[in-house]
Amino acid sequence: MIWEWVIKSLFILIAMTAGFAYLTLFERRMIAKFQIRVGPNRAGPFGLLQPVADGIKLIFKEELVPANADKLMFILAPVITVIPSLIVTAVLPWGPDVTIGGRTIHLYLADVNVGLLYIMAVTSISVYGITLAGWSSNNKYATLGGLRSTAQMISYEIALGFCFIVPVLLSGSMSLVDIVNAQRGLWYAFLQPGAAIILGITMYAEVNRAPFDMPEAEQELTAGYHSEYSGMKFALFFMAEYIKMIAVSMIFTTLFLGGYLLPFQGWFESLPVIGPIIPFIGPFVFLAKVVALLFGFVWVRSTLPRIRYDRLMAFGWKILFPLSLLSVMVTAVVVLLVNR
Amino acid sequence: MLIVFFVLAFVAVGTAISMLVTRNAIYSAIFLVLNFGTVAILYLILGAPFIALSQITVYAGSVVVLFLFVIMLLGAERLPGGEPLKWQRFLAIPLILVLALDFGINIAREGGKIGMVDVPPAGYGAPVDVGKVLFTQYALPFEVTAIILLSAVVGAIMLAKTDKAGRRRDLYKREQQQEKTP
Known about the structure:
The complex is a heterodimer of chains A (340) and B (182).
Chain A: H1 2-34, H2 50-59, H3 71-87, E1 98-100, E2 103-105, H4 115-125, H5 127-136, H6 140-171, H7 176-182, H8 188-191, H9 193-206, H10 218-221, H11 231-256, H12 265-270, H13 278-303, H14 309-339
Antiparallel strand pairs in A: 1-2
Helix pairs in contact in A: 1-11, 1-13, 2-11, 3-5, 3-11, 5-6, 6-9, 6-14, 9-11, 9-14, 11-13
Chain B: H1 2-21, H2 25-45, H3 49-74, H4 88-110, H5 127-135, H6 139-160, H7 167-180
């Protein structure tokens, strides 16, 4: 039993880090396509060894610590940023229960009854890394960038939290396994598209990606909170950003796109020949949805310009926050009326 | 479980003391976060995952981040060396003695009765139960808390609001007029 948990944990960690490595390649190749360039295609077939080459390069780079920086915090900050993004997906199911050799295996690490709250808690911890990185660098640009991106993340976390409440209201559970199973009939993106769109926008802001990529507002802040970081420590920030992208895509898929469920899952399962195999393709369905969302991240980055900072805060507080509140109220009233 | 408890208790007390002792306000805030984290794990051991994760989300995740903001923006990382209230130091020694005496008496009286709390049944303290109790048995305190929080929000906005509400708009207008005039 304990070994099952160890294997699953290792699988999550390795899948997330490998996903990070190949997401960078995917992004670079895709952006190259959008900009009618070729992109990195020299290392290995289709440039598949490019992440390996990047990794080796970053390991051998010199690590600089600025003068008068707070050394302990400077070293700890990338670690504090990366760990929450690695562990946040522990409560997400990536497939239904499968039976192999008479033994039922749950394709999730943990099914806790406060799953969504766990995600909220872990994401709220991850802002410390960014704030402390900015502060400990002893650099005004870095401090400003750290404060900016933290303020942005906290502001958008409110709308994010309200969007999390909508699936909880619809399914009557905070466990993500129950939420996915409740979407067997109709995905929540169709039941409550407003909340799905708001969550889609806030998750871009939450991971500091374009068009909300304030820390990378080069014209104003050089590179924001990671201006002073180099080598492997910079790579950790980079890794945190990309793993967070994967994680929020997984969370969005689980909450609104039916997780590992196919459309018309019940009908597929009742088919004579392919019916029994359907649970086994669950993880691949999940992966396909996540990749589609990640493509959306890349698409938006290569299409939209950056939003000005005051507009970004105004958008979060004056538009997204009331709208998310409204969607929660509407959902609550409708759920009450339907269940009556 | 007992070992886990003692390790956590040690960490919790250690971080609390370090928070008070350290002269760097940022480190103080970080020790506070660690303390909240260990207390949250203690809640987990007691079978209250909802409280544990709320503790991390609200206190560790939001409140202390705002502390950090204030410290960083005011540039108050380095606290001054000397203590502003010198007589406190002399008051501390008798108070420590009183505290130690209180501990001693309590341990002597109740020490034999201390034992492990039974692990609560699975599903105890689930969000559904917490919500039900909150909206039925404790509905009045819940609503009172809501009103207090609302008044705090309104007060914060009133304090932060500048006297001239539309000042930025006026500035913008003036700039436009200046551009037009020459």
